[in-house]
Design brief:
Number of strands: 2
Largest sheet: 2 strands, antiparallel
Number of helices: 2
Strand order of the largest sheet: 1-2
Helix content: 40-55%
Structural class: mainly alpha
Order of helices and strands: HHEE
Radius of gyration: 13 Å
Length: 54
């Protein structure tokens, strides 16, 4: 199964603010994306294809 990951404009705007407040944010996000590329099925499944990431 193929998955696409995209960051919305709103997320990118908020991420920019978070990156200023938390210097490790960018690295953490990059690590998270790398983990998703390796194993896209992560987190706690909820209903209707919604997944909560812990």
């Amino acid at each position: 199964m193929s998955y696409n990951l995209f960051l919305t404009d709103r997320f990118q705007k908020e991420a920019k603010k978070l990156n200023k407040k938390y210097p490790s944010f960018r690295g953490d996000l990059e690590n998270f994306i790398d983990e998703l590329e390796i194993s896209p099925i992560q987190g706690t499944p909820w209903v209707n294809r919604v997944i909560k990431f812990d």
